[in-house]
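Components:
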Amino acid sequence: MKKPFWSILVLLLLIGLLGGCATSESAAEKSTAGDAAGETVPGNTAAGDTVTGGTAAGDAAAGGAAAENQPAAAGSAIDLDLTQLSSIMVYSEVFSMMERPEEYMDKTIKMAGLYSCFYDETTESAYHFVIIEDALACCQQGIEFIWQGDHAYPQDYPEEGFMIEVVGALQIYEESDREYYRLAATELTVK
Amino acid sequence: MIIEKLSLYFQFPFVRYALIVGVLISLSSSLLGVTLVLKRFSFIGDGLSHVAFGAIAIATILNLSNNMLLVVPVTVLCGILLLATGQHTKIKGDAAIALLSVGSLAIGYLLLNLFSASANLAGDVCATLFGSTAILTLTMTEVWLCIGMSLVVIAVFLLFYRQIFAVTFDETFAKATGIKANIYNLLIAVVIAVIIVLAMNLVGSLLISALVICPALSAMRVFKSFKSVTLCSVVISVVCTALGILIAILAGTPVGATIVAVDIATFGMFSIIGRLTGGRL
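Structure:
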């Protein structure tokens, strides 16, 4: 009886430690993604961005695991309508977008959240974000967007903290040898 | 309308994972819940998760690449100190748990405030303690990890059911019949500590305590034998967790708090049933 017992005990400890390692790694990944979003990492809205994965918003997105898995608004060009979900679902889905952005590339997404802006004085560029809070309002996910068309900041943009709704496609772009994700918004509505 | 909403939400993979993992964690924790309640260690879930919080704070400050290398051993050690040696120390039972719990929480938060470089300290602490959306933001690794750990916990409980039963009710008698009570106390301590560390990362401290205590107490209102209480506790725990998750995603409420609310409501319902039946089942 003793030997099997100790074997199980050692096995438990090993699994616990291995499990801890795996959990920690994934937690670290989450933290990175969450921080990147929550801290509203600035992107470049100036002309000359290298948009590597972007297409004009409204293009019909084809295939992909995300398209198969995510609910789309029936009869519309929107692949993923986050405005139809409960607040906790929106937060979780935006978290998923930050974790696995490649699955959402070029999908037309409609989302609502608080408007936030960061103005970088050194580059004289404005970076715009939609902020999604979790159910306890202690954690936030932010997605950068660029409002396509001829829109000047700050005249054409809402005040910070206003609830906005944007529609656009997720795209990747490079700045200072780093890759960033943002929504190429074709529509922006203040709610 | 609700069915339509649910069918829409179930198209999201993270909702399916949350349900699977939540059910498995609740199943595992409820198995040991009865033992902990009967041994007067109801508050150990809270105590050990606070210890884990303190260890996470230290690991964060030390910039450990893998903070679980510190968190798991520290929590297991404290679990052993509380459970396996609980009756032979000067500070016993609830006092020892309270001391470790508040001490770890206070020191962890203090250290984070003094040394953490996080941009959202309040958010990190809040998410760790309440796990508002943690279960909805799982990775596949975490899902498989939970499935594996739950199976191990269930296997341990089934393999050592008789010994755990004996140690739970009368340690002295168990020792007299040749059962190594200390070893089984150690086993219970290690298993519960590992469950708490894993579950804390997934659902937050608040949910862990509720998962451990509420189903067992509810079952005890109606049933009397160890076996029937344990089985009922498992059913209650699984149903309440599933219901809590579904309500949370539909209503947009924090998952952990919603599950606790369902658990408390179930406790009230079972108390009434217990009164009506005289607890004779």
